[in-house]
Amino acid sequence: MSEPTPELPKQWIKGLVPTMNDKGFMFEVLDEYADEFIRSSSTPDNEMLDIGCAYGVATIPALRKGARITACDMDRRHLDILKSRAPEDMHDRLTLFTGALPDIDLQDNYYNAILCSRVLHFLSGDEIDASIRNMFRWLKPGGHLYLVADTPWGIWRNFIPTWEKNVANHERWPGHMPKPINFLPYKPSSDDVGPPLMNLLDPTLLRRTCEEAGFIVDKASFVDRSDFGDKGRMDGRENCGLAAHKPD
């Protein structure tokens, strides 16, 4: 007898759906880079890849546009919920893949577009570099890449002095933040664990990593998350994003 599909976790902060693996939240408000990924899915038979898809906030709109999409997440429960939320007549265009960067093995020169939203900042610097190189391999020539990541200018504002010191010291990864829970702008409860490390980024770091992997960067910018609450919002630089393409 098959296991019942888990239910979508209850929100305790409006617009943020908790993940099941203590990695934070799925944001229900899409940013400009996710929107661009979804728009690119309107070409018939496009093969798309959504890495860190959670419960399908970008996957399901891309399916509705007609794309064939591989939804990848490290937690199978997220994928089961995603499938239960996607219309059944679209299941033949949906592939579920359980895995975590950088240890994912996918087909080279296969995807028209890749979205990797709010995943890279959970990786070490070497893992980020390896992951971006892999995405370059997976994309078809001319394929597009969309990235979104956390910066210090939001909920991680207590890390800003360390970030600035690391930048002044020319650290390759100035956002490397061990024990992120220590930098929250509030006292965590005894039940809070959080990820063991985070690696905060900015548009310059995203651009550097992608250009080193061979991408042509079309746009790299901060992302204003006006939908974030007081503790998460700071000055319009709460996230950073990048759009790039693989040369033909």
Q: Domains counted in the coordinates: how many?
A: 1
For the record, give the distance between the C-alpha atoms at the N and C termini, rounded to a whole number: 48 Å
Largest sheet: 7 strands, mixed
What is the architecture at the second tier of CATH? 3-Layer(aba) Sandwich
Q: How large is the radius of gyration? A: 18 Å
Which secondary-structure class do the elements indicate?
alpha/beta
Which fold does the CATH topology refer to?
A: Rossmann fold
What is the average per-residue confidence, as pLDDT, rounded to a whole number? 89
Commentary on this structure:
This protein has one domain (16-245): Rossmann fold (3-Layer(aba) Sandwich), CATH 3.40.50.150. The chain has a seven-stranded mixed sheet with strand order 5-4-3-6-7-11-10, with helices on both faces. Strands 1-2 form a two-stranded antiparallel ribbon. Helix 3 (76-85) links the parallel strand 4 (68-73) and strand 5. Helix 1 (32-40) runs parallel beside helix 2 (59-65). The radius of gyration is 18 Å and the shape is globular. It has six helices and eleven strands. With 248 residues, the chain is of the alpha/beta class.
